[in-house]
Amino acid sequence: MTYLPPMTRLWSMIILLVKAGLGLVGLLMLPWACAPSPTATLGTPDLARSERWQRWARMDIEYLDGPEAEGRQTATRGFTRVAAYASGQMRQAQLQPVLVDEYRLQYAALLRRSAEVSVQLIGKDTTNALHGDDFLITGVPQELHMAGAMPSLPEVDWLQWSEDVHTREGNTSRWSVDITVDERVSTAPMHVVGMLPGSHPVRRDSVVLVLAPLDGDGLKGSESWTDGSDLSLPAAALLYTMRQMAEYQHTWASYTHSTLFGLLSGTRDDCQGPTQFIRHLPWERSRVSKLIVVSMQVDRACDWNALFGDSFSDNSGLDVVLLQAYAPYDALGAAEFGSWRRRASLMQSDALDEATTEVLRLAHRLLEHVP
Asked: Tell me, what's the pLDDT at 114?
């Protein structure tokens, strides 16, 4: 047996006691060390109290329905701006782009545009009616060549007349309407898409698809008009939800499935944009476990159920959820063309407050549906 001096034996005993104490502390801490990360609480009060999230929601609405966006019509300067804005928001949230360093996708689609519009009012003086002042083309235009007399005017669902025309022209004037349509194949429909990878090694191969329209009806003459069906609230709710989920995922890895966020264009052109997007979906369609669409309550552009029924007919287990936002009509300006109002009236304080509150409500409902 090796002889150890008394002082050496003393230090050896102290070291053994310290090691034993550290081991005991480690055993006591083991349950906490092995516990899973806490589940994020996504209740409405937490979201509503966060001034930061509210500011971002308000910021999104102000930009997407603001003057710089020019109504967000597909294949226009205004839509290019909002696509760049949404792409920047996805990059800031650290979503994974579906292309190499690019969130914007483009697919060919058949678009219809009014190539030439001529509306003449023939009374004591012949005048050309002005788009945005005397009439609005408010949907997918059709060829139209008609003539008649006041007080009747052509009644089609995509053409709205101002009451000022009846007042100004009286009952003795005649009118003629000539509208030609340009139909062409275009690569202009642009979608902004980003992915939040899931945390589970197997379940991450399944994707939850969250979609919302990003485009609008564009300018009518020199101004942008809306009947509420193309407001930016669904897109703002998607961006809000995306930021929330990205923050929780980067911090706690809270979501096992991957989530693909898509802001779509071409929704106003007979839904050609979403049709092309689903056809060329950047994910295997059989791997889509849930599909959530956020739109306005009065969305007259897309029949989402019909679109998904045709596109996912081979995926019988797909869970489809449609969520709808409500326009703050009471706080918007007065309607001037049937139900159409100036989009700029949404920037009024009361209307903007109501729109922001609706985005928070919609985002909370959306979060409830994400597995």
From this structure: 61
pLDDT tens digits for range 248-259: 999 999 899 999
| Residue 97, SS3 per DSSP | strand
Say if pTM beats, i.e. exceeds, 0.85. no
Structural contact between residues 120 and 126, judged by C-beta atoms closer than 8 angstroms: yes
Q: What is the bridge-based pairing of β-strands 190-196 and 104-106?
A: antiparallel
Overall average pLDDT of the 173-192 stretch: 75
- Output 353 or 331, whichever has higher pLDDT: 353
Cβ neighbour number for residue 100 with a 10 Å cutoff? 5
| Cα 215 from chain centroid (whole Å) | 9
Unique residue bearing structure tokens 């102000």? 62
Q: What is the mean pLDDT of the chain?
A: 81
Gap between the Cα atoms of 315 and 132, Å rounded: 45
- Ordered by start, the domain boundaries in the chain are 44-108+187-369, 112-184
Contacts of 85 (CB under 8 A, 6+ apart): 63, 64
CATH code that applies to domain 44-108+187-369: 3.40.630.10
CA 229, CA 215: separation in Å to the nearest integer?
Answer: 11
What are the Cα distances from residue 354, in Å, to 2, 157, 212, 238? 85, 29, 20, 17
The mean per-residue pLDDT over the stretch 255-274 comes to 90
d(C-alpha 63, C-alpha 287), whole Å: 34
The pLDDT of residue 34 is 44
pLDDT at 36 over 70: no
CA atoms within 13 A on the CB side of 337: 26
Q: How far is CA 23 from the centre of its chain?
A: 54
How, if at all, do strands 174-186 and 159-161 pair?
unpaired
Percent of the chain having pLDDT more than 70?
A: 79
Read off the tokens for 300: 């007259």
Number of Cβ within 10 Å of residue 303's Cβ equals: 12
Residues in contact with 124: Cβ distance below 8 Å, sequence separation at least 6, in sequence order: none
Contact between 260 and 209 under an 8 Å Cβ cutoff? The reply is yes
Q: Which of 335, 291, 306 is nearest to 138 (CA)?
A: 335
Q: Which two tokens stand for residue 341?
A: 């109002």
